[in-house]
Amino acid sequence: MKRMGTLRQLSDLSHFSGAARLRELLAADPAVKVRCSPDGRHLLLLRSPGAPCPQLLVAVRGSDAELERAWPAGHPSPLDAFFLPWPARPALVLVWESGLAEVWGAGVGPGWRLLRSTELCPAGGACVVAVAVLRGRLVWCEERQAGAEGQLGLPAAFSHCVCFRTLEPNGEGGTNLGRTHVLLHHCPSFGLLASRKDLFLVPTATTWPGVGHVLLTWSPGKGKVMVVAPCLGLSHCKSLNPVRGDTWDFRTLLRGLPGLLSPMKPLTVHTWAPTPQGLLLLDFRGTVSLVQTHGGTRTVGTLQEAPVGLAGSAALGTFHGTLACVLGSTLELLDMGSGQLLERKVLSTDRVHLLAPPAPGMEDEEELETRGGLRLLSALGLFRVGWEAPQGLEVPSAEDLVFEEACEYYQRRSLRGAQLTPEELKHNSTFRAPQALASILQGHVSPSTLVTTLRAELRDYRALDQLKAHLVAGDDEEAGWTELAEHEVARLLRTELMGDQLVQLNTVFQALPTAAWGAVLRALQLQPDGNGRLRSHAPPDVWKKVLGGTSAGKEPPNGILPLFELLCQCLCRLEPRWLPPFVELAQQQGGPGWGAGGPGLPLYRRALAVLGEEETRSEALELELLLGSGRPKAVLQAVGQLVQKEQWQRALEAGLALGPSSPLLRSEIFKLLLAEFAQHRRLDAYLPHLRRLCPPDLTPAELLLLIRTHLPDELEPPTPFPKPGTEPPLTVGLLRALLEQTGAQGRPLGPVLSLYEDILCDPGTPPPTPPRGPMTTLQTSDHPVLEAWAPSGQGLCVTDTG
User: Domain BLOC-2 complex member HPS6 N-terminal, which positions (predicted)?
Assistant: First the structure.
């Protein structure tokens, strides 16, 4: 279905201050320069030097006062004037050929006032020939006298240079001017044109013919300059970043680029027009070409009529893949891709100016209505050219869109099989959220109440739009992308994190993991406590969102990770040492069904799954996660791995770190280490730690039984001393410390409970020495003295060695 181009009048200029003077200047002077402010509320008209008064008019939409300036004969008028992209207040800069620059501002008080005046060429003798403003930078091309900067003997064709200074607001009424940076030395006279992110240096009628076929594109955000010869199809890219001190001598630059100095005729261009896609140029044959920012040049299309001489007016602009060209009183719309003529309209006046669209994020409510088209200004009023929706295409109302979107949302969360419909949502009192939003869109809520309710969110969205505008302009791209990622993660954390939102979050983490983790760090309010642990002051609902989103035995769809797994994966890449403390902190949070204590997988298992397969994952991280999990099986598994690696100190510390609330787990770790103690002597040095780990209710009999169970098999009869090169066996001396530990822990005062407890009792004085003599069996009646020494019910054999 064919689109229809429409030309709709937006205003008759009556709502601008100084409307009569505005119409008069637009109708009387076809050569007047017209600029539009970044927010679209101000119009600047500047007449050429020598024109009747006033030479400068700034009209404002609304009740604010306009600005009129006139310069008497003998006092030159400004060479050019531009609005500055300051979001806080409107400001403009006026530049004279002498190098004088004035910054004017409005919004602090009634009317406009001079904020700053400076000399761009303080050395004197220079003449400014062209000016442009690029994202807060004032750029100019100046002609210097012979002898300046060593230019003595230099041809006049290369006596120019291109410089810039930054212009930034300072408080409510001040202006900061940066120092002067020189981009190009010894260059010809260039005209300057600026889009939102690029500066174009184009040849003029006074440019030396030998380089009249060359133009340059400087991209500050990329720190590069592109030298292009459209007629040759050649382009070369060079580094040009003034922040790093880069500067170029124009002649040296061209001599280092082969092929650009081939004999060619200068470019014959009627009209230049900067656009976001590049630089448009209209030649005298009616052909429109586009020099793209990467250096390529292509023909867009050919107009039905060609411009007649330099006196004819022409203006170029683009919108929605469409080229708009106003040539005299004719408006032609061409497709940017195919060059096909889409529509041609005859206007009622030949004095029409195309206005640049407002900067992204700076439009007010009235300007939002004109988005998607181009604005045309003439003495008859302000018009918009755009595309009209095809007939028969019914555009749904805002209320219908609300209920359709709500249907999709509720259907994803619903367990019933029946399909929800917008009509059901409109009349069912259960679904109150879409009904409330629909009533707001219908105007049932007063605008003041709505603005008060949404003020904070509107401020956030405006800041986000301004940030996107800076990215589009190419200013400080790395920091801009980081901030944009943080905004996006913070926004997604406020959603349900299901479906598309979770996919978007995964995408941000993959593209900018550092910025994404920074946003999560602020959302969870994570801080180290100085002991290698983390603490969080985030509310429970935030942790609920972090820990949820997974089910036992179910893999994430299409490789999309839930938020907890996503954070673990990000930490594993950026700061692996903080992964175990983070998982340990997450285990302390949670509630039923959150993932930290619910029926799903334990958090340490979910974190281990992110580390990969067992053969590839980091053993150190795996051990830390197992030890910090607090789960008996996991801790035993970790201690078993430490025992296999003979990391005795760490294995003992893992057991001693368990509190009194885990007696069974401590007992199991003790038995595991006691088995190793019985088999070899590599644990002897850690015997004090092993004693501390000994369960308090363990008796000497149980201890000896455990040791006997794990003693190595004796292949040969025991000898008093081990053979050289063999490991010494377990001795009673080594075992005595453990036996004392088990006997001292709550020794009973009653009868003896163990056959071995009396061994540990110190009688204080040694028993009497038995008499020497032949070996006999001691009888109790014959030796009454020994009766008291021998234990009751036991017979002793004494051997006389004498």
Answer: 1-385
